[in-house]
Amino acid sequence: MADDCCSSSRDNNGGGGGGGDAASCITNLSHDHLFSILLLLPLDSILSFAMTCKKTTRLTRSHTLWKSICTRDWGHSTVDALLASSSSSFSSVDWKRLYQRLRNLDRVSCFSLTPPTNDAQGPTPTPRASHSLNFFSGCLVLFGGGSEGGRHLDDTWIAYVGNGFKRMMNWQRVISDGPSGRFGHSCVGIGDCLVLFGGINDSGVRQNDTWIAQVVIDDTTNTSSSRLAWRLLDVGPVAPPTRGAHACCSIDNRRMLIHGGIGLSGLRLGDTWVLHLSENLCFGTWHEAVTDPVPSPRSGHTLTYIGGSRTVLFGGRGMGYEVLNDVWYLDSSEGHLGWVPVVFELRNIPGGLSLPRVGHSATLILGGRVVIYGGEDSYRHRKNDFWLLDIGSKRMWRRLKSEGYEGRSRSFHRACADESGRYLYVFGGMVDGILHPAEPAGLRFDGELFVVELVL
Q1: Which residue in 87, 190, 258, 294 has the fewest CB atoms around it within 10 Å?
Q2: What are the alphabetically sorted keywords of the record (predicted)?
Q3: Is 335 left (phi over 0), alpha (psi -120 to 50) or beta?
Q4: Comparing C-alpha atoms, which of 422, 456, 450 is closest to residue 164?
Q5: What was the pLDDT predicted at 3?
């Protein structure tokens, strides 16, 4: 390795002009110019560039540079959320070390947030599955779902979280006119609102209505004292066919994407629809995205927006009731939507036979990758495992070790991440119950809330 590429350049050219002139040497660029160039490069190129000379080596060890790389790759809001985290010392973090530890993430740590029955902190949501759970405006927002006795719920609950996770959570039930009782619906945050679509009601009727809600937080009390107002969104004469158990995500501050689900007569769907919201959020417009190729029809799968122009689809139950493990991404980089299958080498899928699942959760985490949790296989065996999915250049599956609290295996739960992407919240789902004579089916709805922390 050269100690100083400028001096090497002068030696090779006799100190004269021409291509080896010191003025043309990259290390004669100002610190700010070099800094800007490095931020245009992928990580591997930055590390290679660090080996060229002393000046670049010093620069690539810079705390400021690595904080800027984290901001570039994770986003300003994520870095700000990490800095604001009350449970961590990120204000003095070694950003390079944090970045590298995240790239090599191999474990999570779990903590129960459900108090013992005799120590309950006020009312809590009843056990349920196929509900919705969103992290929105510093709060967890839960709506609906299916419950014991075939009843489907229409209640809305809010728990204030703020920065970092808390060992205890206080739920508040919000009383407001909103969507009718349902399960298998979708609900996502878009801009400063929540958008809900579809679902199945008590009578098994599929819905295709679109609702919008906004949350107002009482910051003065630093509690979950909040208001939430639902209203039916005007979408005009065109809407997706009725369905439930579909997949959904937001893809920017004005668009929501849905795919598949169970339609009329239990038929599994394979269509893709996009909702465009107006700037004032007063109305929306649905249109179907027709592409070729397309993922096969399915239900109980997941869609996860991972930033840029890509949204990841994984798993679900197919037309023949088979449980799937294929991965696709929806590309919007060319101004139109197109599905692309993701092919993995077998050596990059450790324990690949355990991957097919339905009713799992897929959550975007810090660093732009996806954590897959739980679900069930074709034999309805529920899972309690965590997998890291990366569809970047490495195209990797990695099973994550789990430490701390161990929840029950579950499916059709819901999970969401806080603004930092470091903490995942998991609530409810179907779990294996204890068999009793009066309960021939060992199947129960769960009302547990726990947090999953990335160990960095």
Answers
A1: 87
A2: Kelch repeat
A3: left
A4: 422
A5: 43
